[in-house]
Amino acid sequence: MFLLNLQSKTPIYEQIQEQILKFIEVGVLKPGDRLPSVRQMAMDNGINPNTVAKAYAEMEKNGYVYNLPKKGVYVADVNIIDSRIQQIKQLLIPLKENGITKEELLEVINGIYKEETC
After folding, report:
1. Domain co-membership, 86 together with 56
2. CA 118 to chain centre
3. Most buried residue among 14, 41, 76, 108 by CB atoms closer than 10 A?
């Protein structure tokens, strides 16, 4: 189910999080679905269980999953798009407070989107 690139510069725990979020976005994982246990995920992918535990813990902290002790980790009932918009707002507020203008931000955003289309 998970395709991890052990040679990537992206940390493995972040790759796990990204893939789980993608699965939630496209409907492969639905609220209430149980994720693989930490041990099982680690064994299946040949990685350290602490790496999986870190990915799950961060996802729980962000409200994407919840943990039922001795039962497992489950997908939370959360709107991923709304949650991501909240994350963006949390990043933008300090920029605004430090004098970055809307125009400067839009210039950066437009540059990023132009790079993607090339």
Report:
1. no
2. 26
3. 41
Do 29 and 63 sit in the same domain of this protein? yes
pTM confidence score: 0.69
User: What's the domain count of the chain?
Assistant: 2
Rounded alpha-carbon distances, angstroms, from residue 50 to 39, 57, 61, 91: 9, 10, 16, 28
pLDDT digits (tens, 9 = 90+) for 12-66: 999 999 999 999 888 899 999 999 999 999 999 999 999 999 999 999 998 899 9
Query: Strands 65-68 and 72-75: what pairing?
Result: antiparallel
| Domain that residue 41 falls in | 12-75
C-alpha distances in Å from residue 105, one per residue of 2, 16, 95, 99, 112: 34, 29, 9, 11, 11
Residue count (the chain): 118
